[in-house]
Structures are given as C-alpha cells and as structure tokens.
Amino acid sequence: MTIPATVALAGGVLAASWHPSHKARSLIQHFASGVVLAALAVEIFPEIGRGHVPPLVLVGSFALGSLFMFAVKIWTTWMEQREAVGLAGGAAAGSARGLLLATFIDVAVDGLIIGAGFAAGGETGTILAIGLSVELLFLALALTSDTTKGWRIVALSGAVGATVLGFAVIGNHLLAGASHATIGGALAFSAAALLYLVTEELLIEAHEVPETPIATLILFSGFLIFWCVQLFAV
Questions:
Q1: Using one digit for the tens of pLDDT, what is the confidence trace for 5-50?
Q2: Number of domains in the chain
Q3: Helices 2-17 and 124-143 sit at what angle, rounded to 10 degrees?
Q4: Distance of alpha carbon 32 from its chain centroid, rounded?
Q5: Are 32 and 135 in contact (CB under 8 A)?
C-alpha cells in the first residue's frame, strides 16, 4: 500500500524541477485517463463480476456513486463561479480548485479501491496498487500550474500520497472479512468516481488546448501499459 504514496511524492519532486507546457500537461492528462480507464476495464469490473454480487447491489452502489459525484460536480461548479465573481482571473483559479477537490476525492477513492482489492484477496490489491501508481506519478505533473509549482507541488503530492495511503489502510480495515456483496458494492461505487475523474476532469482539462492525433495515441498507451501490468503480474 505504500507504493502509490511513494510514487505520488516522487511525481511531485519531478514536477518541482520540470514545468511542462500546457500541451505537455494535456498529453499527461490523456495518459492518466487511459490508465484509469484500464483500471476500470481490466481489473475493477472483472473483479466485481467474479464476486457474483446480486445485480441490485451493484446497480444501487453505482447509482449512489454517480449521485455522489454529481453533488461534487455541483460543488466544484459553485466554487468556480464564486472565484470568478470575487477575483480578477478567478475563473482559472476556481477551475484549479475544482480540479484539486475532484483529485483528492478521486485519490481517496483510489485508496479505498486498493484497500478493497487487498481485502478481496489474490493479486487484485497488488495489481491495482501498481497500476494506479502510474496514474499518481503523472497526477502531479497534470496538476502543475503557474501558481502550483516548486515546493507547493511537492507538498501537494505529499498530501496526495498520504491520502491514498490512509484511505487504503481504512478500506482494507473496514472491508477485511466483508462479504462479496459488500466488497462488490464498494468497488461499484468507486467505479463511478473514477469515471467522473476521466470524463469530467482530466479529459475536459486536457481538451482546453487544441487536440492533436498524438493525444489519442497517448491515451491508448496509458491503457496498454496498465493492461500489461495486469497481464504480466498474473
């Protein structure tokens, strides 16, 4: 469980010395999106299927996760509007705050997913920890901005690492010995949060710069790398 936390901090150290351009950050966000999508398609949904969880539990859990992230979207939108009214150039600041809020919620969910994976047994927890570490490594670079760099991005990445580790421990503790239905419901809830991160945050931010064909290739590369982690870890 310490692997993702360590990798997140390493990403912050890297981001402190390298300041990617807007185009580079867009490519990084495409890559991170591919990794998250692969985590869903390759590991999380198959793990849910292996548990033979009642469909109503899965549907209800995913619906609750969707409603939770919908509430997050409303909150972050309100934050953006508040910043836009209160500060000159506040729209960008509000957008950054919204992305940070969504990111920390996603990181907490990542931790719960990793904890649930270890609680489910087998190689699921290890594969998820390694795979989601790729996302966390590039997350600091994706969050780098004109106001968030240097020691600030290192501190932010340290907070991200502490969050994912803390919630991984909490998730593993709460779900250890839990029924397949409980673990499957937790994973279904988490899947909704990950879909939100990709569709409503990472890709939207990534498309603020002109789209290029290489961005699509980068997204698929992220998917392929996570898939390779899963295939070769078995």
A1: 888 888 888 877 777 777 887 888 888 888 888 888 888 888 888 8
A2: 1
A3: 20
A4: 8
A5: yes
